[in-house]
Design brief:
Oligomer: single chain
Number of strands: 19
Bound molecules: the ligand CCCCCCCC/C=C\CCCCCCCC(=O)N[C@@H](CC(C)C)C(=O)O, zinc ion
Structural class: alpha+beta
Distance between the termini: 9 Å
Number of helices: 14
């Protein structure tokens, strides 16, 4: 495959608006078209005898790549084809154009997560064209509704594999990146492989009051009571969980890359932990790493300008720190609100998944580390960490204890804001490197213990 057609397949994928708008609101026409599209651009994947393809939940795709050595436990690569909405306003180029300009492919899904869908299939296509037969079997699961919780895609694939008795050595999904420019004073990029992710709660708060004429308002209305309750929640941060372990481990691994005196501070968190945790609270991204976050995302009340509203509702999205549980957070929330007129309705809730191993025996973690070292030799630090977002991988905890969330891409604060924001784009070079990473990773995974010699050239 030449360079142009390599990136051309991404342009085509971005062009198909596979938008998840809201619960049960998907662009099914686009999702069906996307299925036909991957079929047409990766013909070898679809016609190879040892690659089985199944459509699950109507639009998700499960590929089973049969390896030659049944004694090796299979693994799975995840990605998702749906994207969040992208109104045209504010974009440098239309978000579904997939335009390639100045070395970048532009558009919704270029970082989250059509890049991974296309790179995984492209790497497999290239390997198959070179007559490669894997030793270790693997699955590729491409969800179609990750952006609305994965109930019809990932969850169904997970149930199907469980019913078939499949147990996996590990899973690799989207999540963290090679981070560049997130920490002042740290000029060098570092790779964070997320070994867990935050839990989540969507909580609806509701206040019912007697409606009436606005010319003689009561002292308190449903809107006023609810507004005060959500404001208390916003103004009362959840406890700082810095001391609980994982983040400490990440910072200790980063310590020696910092200049004096930060290196000393981070190497002695037993002493400076409280100081570091307070500093982390000051920035909204690092704050998300040390605590359960509270985001007021929806507020609804009122039917007419001169009617006292009978009901007011607000939805709050909490991201639960891995050291807490949904139950603990709900208790705290009730104590903060402390108003019996406010009703609580949990719309959805999921505890943080268990922390996956990152020691020397952890095959998935070590394979990622090895491949990062080979494809990104300039990256000195690879450390385990937390993913602040949620991924489809949380639906697969029944199949493995080793779940790793890592995109082999550089991410800086500006590109971080483009994910779910505006002007999402990927450099052609970054996409090609992602393909190379997966191409090498699949071969590295053929090891039973030691890395095996393999092709480096695409
Ligand atoms: C000391 C280290 C500093 C680290 C800085 C951290 C920078 C953050 C880097 C990457 C985070 C990106 C998270 C991307 C994954 C999110 C996928 C997503 O959007 N999922 C949805 C799922 C939901 C169920 C709809 C979500 O809202 O989380
Ligand atoms: Zn995503
Ligand atoms: Zn997303």
């Amino acid at each position: 495959m030449d360079r142009k057609s390599c990136t051309g397949v991404v342009t085509g994928a971005i062009h198909i608006p596979t938008v998840s708008f809201g619960p049960k609101e998907l662009n099914t026409t686009a999702l069906a078209e996307f299925g036909e599209y991957i079929h047409s651009v990766f013909p070898t994947v679809f016609k190879t005898s040892f690659v089985q393809h199944e459509v699950i939940g109507e639009y998700s795709h499960l590929f089973t790549v049969q390896g030659s050595d049944p004694s090796l436990q299979p693994y799975m690569l995840l990605a998702h084809s749906d994207v969040v909405p992208a109104p045209d306003e504010g974009w440098e180029v239309p978000p579904f154009s997939g335009l390639e300009r100045d070395g970048f492919i532009h558009g919704r899904g270029t970082l989250d997560n059509k890049n991974s869908v296309m790179a995984i299939l492209q790497a497999l296509e290239l390997l198959l064209l070179r007559n490669y037969i894997p030793r270790r079997s693997f699955f590729i699961a491409l969800g179609h509704d990750e952006e609305i919780s994965g109930h019809n895609g990932a969850q169904k694939i997970s149930a199907l594999l469980q019913a078939r008795g499949v147990q996996l050595a590990f899973i690799v999904d989207e999540g963290n990146f090679i981070l560049d420019g997130f920490i002042p004073n740290l000029k060098k990029p570092f790779a964070i492989i997320a070994v867990t992710e935050k839990g989540a709660i969507d909580l609806m708060l509701q206040v019912n009051m007697t409606p009436g004429h606005s010319s003689a308002p009561p002292k308190e209305t449903s809107i006023g009571i609810l507004a005060a309750a959500v404001s208390r929640l916003e103004q009362t941060p959840m406890p700082n969980m810095f001391g609980s372990g994982l983040l400490k481990m990440t910072l200790q691994e980063l310590a020696h890359e910092f200049p004096f005196p930060t290196n000393i501070i981070l190497s002695n968190l037993w002493l400076f932990g409280p100081l570091v945790s307070r500093l982390m609270e000051r920035n909204y991204i690092t704050n998300a790493l040390v605590t359960t976050t509270t985001a007021l995302t929806m507020f609804n009340a009122g039917v007419k300008v001169n009617v006292i509203p009978p009901v007011a509702q607000a939805i709050i999205n909490f991201r639960v720190d891995p050291a807490q549980t949904v139950q603990e957070v709900l208790e705290l929330v009730k104590n903060i609100v402390a108003d019996s007129r406010v009703q609580f309705h949990v719309l959805s809730a999921i505890d943080p998944p268990p922390v996956s191993p990152s020691d020397h025996q952890a095959l998935g973690y070590q394979l990622l580390r090895q491949t990062i070292r080979s494809v990104f030799p300039e990256v000195n630090i690879v450390a385990p960490g937390i993913c602040i977002g949620n991924t489809d991988s949380r639906h697969y905890t029944n199949l493995t204890t080793g779940i790793y969330r890592f995109n082999p891409l550089y991410l800086n604060p500006q590109s971080f804001r483009s994910i779910h924001g505006i002007n999402e784009k990927i450099s052609v070079r970054a996409y090609e490197t992602q393909v190379k990473f997966i191409f090498e990773f699949i071969q590295n995974a053929d090891t039973d213990q030691e890395p095996v010699p393999h092709l480096h050239e695409l």
